[in-house]
Write a structure and sequence with these properties.
Layout (H helix, E strand, L loop, with lengths): L7 E8 L3 H12 L5 E5 L27 H14 L3 E4 L1 E6 L4 E6 L3 E12 L3 E3 L15 E3 H11 L6 E5 L3 H12 L3 E7 L8 H8 L6 E3 L1 E7 L6 E6 L12 E4 L2 E4 L3 E3 L2 H5 L24 E3 L10 H19 L7 E7 L3 E5 L2 E4 L8 E7 L3 E2 L2 E6 L2 E7 L2 E2 L5 E5 L1 H5 L7 E6 L6
Parallel strand pairs: 1-2, 1-6, 2-3, 6-17, 8-15, 9-10, 9-15, 10-11, 18-27
Antiparallel strand pairs: 4-5, 5-6, 7-16, 12-13, 13-14, 18-20, 19-21, 21-26, 22-25, 23-24, 23-27
Helix pairs in contact: 1-2, 1-7, 3-4, 4-5
């Protein structure tokens, strides 16, 4: 006879025990859900924060400055105190539309969970060299910035001594400082775009403070070396991001770090039949962070890449509460109204707002990135072309997430709309 594996029944299953997954679990537990399991493929909870030993975390949430491990430990301790079932060393193989989750581990073997709600909190991964099509040999000494960070901070290995960094994402900027403090010489940080993709504070604290040059509108056009990197060629690019002949700069180095963007870890999301946004590469969600599949929620960097972990936690608390409401039969009713990216806006989240006409509305946060640098612009929200919200900003840049909040009155003005649009304008609208 065939021995079929029986499914383990749970109310909420959370995939990932990084800051997003832990926050969602804590919120769900506080909302009264006891049948709750968190699955984490690494041997320790905490996610990427475990290797982020620099400070700067927690200023918004805890009102004090913490390192990554300190921030993670607070949620790990809270989850332990609340007796939340966090299982590490467990790899989730699949999530289906009916919320069946298949997982495998050394400790538990093959398991099948049948959940009433699933929260996806798998985080993101770095874009690899293969996605960049850089000419040159496939020699040793080329690492993603996150891999180098893991080597230095967790495993005690130095990737190299003379370093060039391609891309100005926050991990790359932080590793410029970290490698310098460990005795390496960081020759340059090279950025394809005419602006940095990292936070301004990291440009100042990690590059300017250590006299590391930042080459904007430049890219690596060749990698030299057979067994190991011996140097790279950097060229200036034009407005179409094409290398300009005659602008080449040669750097003798033994290491090239890539900090060229993060991608939501969405294989499980796609496998569950969830709609994916081409702008964020994450799930399409409503303002409760529910995806296109009822009962499946997404939060944190698997939804869209955040600048600060404080915002990841805040968003994930909402997802955990919403998942609890779903299994407890308290899910909010109403019509879904699409949120569209307007001029200057890239990847607004949520992509839908659920409004029940005549009901009392809670405020809705909308996060997005501008498509370029703006000075003194207005963020404008329209409902079928009619302005319902405007807010002036001093400066906006792609490296920093923008966040606006629509209040109850503004949401009420959107109740009959067919589409809500978020845009950036240099002119003040009349609301």
């Amino acid at each position: 006879m065939k021995n079929e594996l029986s499914a383990i029944q749970v109310d909420i299953l959370i995939v990932g025990a990084g800051p997003a997954g832990l926050a969602a679990a804590i919120a769900a537990k506080k909302a009264g859900v006891d049948s709750l399991v968190v699955l984490e493929r690494e041997e320790n909870a905490g996610g990427i924060l475990r290797q982020c030993i620099h400070n700067g975390f927690g200023l918004h949430r805890f009102k004090e400055e913490l390192t990554g491990p300190e921030y993670a430990q607070r949620d790990i301790d809270t989850a332990h105190e609340m007796e939340i079932d966090v299982r590490t060393g467990v790899t989730v193989l699949s999530v289906t539309k009916d919320k069946t989750v298949t997982a495998i581990s050394k400790k538990y073997g093959l398991q099948i969970f049948q959940a009433k709600a699933v929260v996806l909190a798998m985080g993101c991964r770095e874009r690899p060299r293969g996605a960049l099509a850089i000419p040159g040999t496939r020699c040793a000494g080329i690492y993603s910035a996150g891999t180098a960070q893991k080597f230095v901070n967790l495993e005690g290995f130095m990737p190299g001594r003379r370093v060039v960094i391609l891309g100005s994402g926050d991990i790359g900027l932080i590793m410029a400082r970290r490698m310098t403090l460990q005795g390496a010489k960081v020759l340059a940080c090279v950025e394809l775009m005419p602006f940095s993709s990292g936070l301004n504070r990291n440009i100042v604290q990690c590059l300017h403070d250590y006299n590391i040059p930042l080459y904007l509108s430049h890219t690596v056009t060749d990698i030299h070396g057979k067994e190991r990197v011996t140097g790279v060629t950097v060229s200036k690019v034009d407005e179409n991001r094409r290398p300009i002949p005659g602008t080449e700069i040669e750097f003798e180095c033994d290491t090239l770090l890539l900090s060229v963007g993060l991608i939501p870890e969405n294989e499980l999301t796609i496998g569950a039949g969830v709609d994916i946004s081409p702008a964020t590469s994450g799930a399409v969600v409503d303002d409760t962070l529910q995806t296109s599949v009822p009962g499946i929620f997404a939060c944190g960097n698997v939804l869209h890449v955040h600048d600060l972990v404080d915002f990841v936690s805040g968003e994930s608390f909402k997802a955990g509460q919403a998942a609890a409401d779903f299994v407890q039969g308290k899910a909010r009713a109403g019509r879904l109204i699409p949120v569209k990216d307007g001029a200057g806006v890239r990847g607004a989240v949520p992509q839908q707002i659920r409004l029940d006409k005549g009901a009392e509305h809670a405020g809705v946060d909308i996060m997005f990135r501008p498509d370029r640098v703006y000075q003194n612009p207005y963020v404008v929200v329209t409902a079928d072309g009619k302005p319902v919200f405007s807010q002036k900003k001093m400066i906006m840049a792609p490296g920093e997430m923008a966040n606006i909040t629509l209040n109850a009155k503004q949401l009420a003005a959107c109740e009959d709309a067919q589409v809500i649009e978020v845009a950036i304008s240099q002119e003040k609208p009349e609301c």
